[in-house]
Amino acid sequence: MNEEKDIENALHAYGERIRFKQRLQMMQASIDMDAMRQDADLYNSPAEASGQIRKLWHTYRTTLAVAASAAIITTFGSIFLYRSYLQGHKQQEQQYSLLSKEIQAVKTSQRRLLNDFNGRGRGLGINPAQVAGSGFLLTSDGYFITNNHIIREADSVYVQSGKGEVYKARIVYADQAHDLAVLQLCDDSAFRTLPPVPYSFDAKSSDLGERVYTLGYPREEIVYGEGYLSSGTGYRGDSTAYQVAISVNPGNSGGPLLDEKGNVIGIISGKQTTSEGVSFAVKTNYLFEALNSIPPDSLKGQPLRLNRKSTLASLPRKQQIKRMQDYVYQVKVFKHKE
Amino acid sequence: MKESRQPVLTDDELLLGLADGSDDALGQLYRRYFPMVLHFVTSNSGNEDDAKDIYQEALIVLYEKVRSGSLELHCQLKTYLYSIGRRLWLKQLAQRSRFVIRDVETPASDEMAIDQLNDDLIDHEERDRQFTLMADSLGRLGEPCRTLLDDFYIQHLSMQDITEKFGYTNADNAKTQKYKCLMRLKRLFFAEYKQ
């Protein structure tokens, strides 16, 4: 019986608390907060008499002055450092040059292609492409890899073999992050499937000092270059690329980087302009990543299989190059003029 | 302005009005000392919302003391509210591991007043515990008991209103239902509260 009274009392008290809280909320809603804030700011009580503040000011003003000047120096110092860092950053940015070449800048006095049997080359001869680079076949049925920066914003992309055959290419996939682009040549009926590619693709990371070579089109003619792997990371520690001591020029971009056994270990992507012989190549590993992220629709349902076994391994370098060069193409890109 | 036409009440009148449940008195009281607590909390790493919560809790302590007729003031009302608010805020700061505060007002300092403050705050904490438990028990009670008890004891609806709202055939039926609910709440509540 007693507990029954208790619980009722407790409930009544609880109700009273809740209702009072509601009234308080209403009061809070009805008061003029700005006036309250003003009153609070003006609030002066004996506990914080102004005399005390003045005394504190007198005692600590030298300390304050020192602290303030230190703060000013630090502030401007940091701003200065930050700005100079930014500028340095910009300079470094300029040091990296993408190796696609602006063909218009190159003299057109270069030897025209003579073996232009089917007349396809003539179009290119009359109307030189605006950007050119290199690229090579991934599979013998016409999948092709090059750099994204070459084909970026392209209106049309053509590839031209060392023998002067020209094919139109379709962009299957562009991986901007790793500067890779997958093209397909077999859209063009003129393209005939080649014998299987002789080189293989090796996703294992290669060791420093590995002798490497590349083939590419810095000119209208295929050019061979050789060097060695000088660092496991690329431009400014970019872990997706290698640094290679190899002499490359605009137009080499997109070319294959091969080791002695004929494994493709990377794709040439750029070089540092401030020092000679410092070039960069995207690791083959990221080529696989890019291939895996191609939507199946773009491949028309047929998976892309790369050659894993090099048939070049036991051949001397000269023979390797001879077998290779049919698979390395020049990429020509047309863009609409601004 | 509505407020300016009302006579300015003294502290004693405010307390009487508060005990009677007058909205005018509560409004005047609310506006009179809020700036003080606002200034105190905001100059001790709190924001306006903290200040509002602290002030409202201090007013709850005062209100419940006044309503139960057990308020003994050994200092000015202003000092009382300041000291209560100060203690409550100190407790919150301690939870945030800050122990130093800057006073904007002199807190109650003589022994009687401090004893009284301690007692009031202990009472308040005890009631807080009880009310949290009550809210919890009500929550676990389930429907329709929760709403029925809420309507009767908290919203103060009449038995007649409740009969209609819940669709009972007559008020007696509703009363029986309410009694059953109360008994269930009693079991739930005391099962925890006794411990």
UniProtKB/TrEMBL annotation, chain A:
One of its GO terms (molecular function) is serine-type endopeptidase activity. One of its GO terms (biological process) is proteolysis. Keywords: Hydrolase, Membrane, Protease, Transmembrane, Transmembrane helix. The keyword Membrane applies. The keyword ATP-binding does not apply. The chain crosses the membrane at residues 64-82. It holds the Pfam family Trypsin_2. InterPro entries: Chloro_Bact_Ser_Proteases (IPR051201), Peptidase_S1_PA (IPR009003), Peptidase_S1_PA_chymotrypsin (IPR043504), Peptidase_S1C (IPR001940). Belongs to the peptidase S1C family. PANTHER family: PEPTIDASE S12, PROTEASE DO-LIKE 8, CHLOROPLASTIC. This is Trypsin-like peptidase domain-containing protein. It comes from Spirosoma endophyticum.
Automatic annotation (TrEMBL), chain B:
It comes from the Bacteria. It holds the Pfam family Sigma70_r2. The keyword DNA-binding applies. GO terms for biological process: DNA-templated transcription initiation. GO terms for molecular function: DNA binding; sigma factor activity. Keywords: DNA-binding, Sigma factor, Transcription, Transcription regulation. Residues 29-98 form the RNA polymerase sigma-70 region domain. PANTHER family: RNA POLYMERASE ECF-TYPE SIGMA FACTO, RNA POLYMERASE SIGMA FACTOR HI_1459-RELATED. This is RNA polymerase sigma factor, sigma-70 family. It comes from Spirosoma endophyticum. The lineage of its organism: Bacteria, Pseudomonadati, Bacteroidota, Cytophagia, Cytophagales.
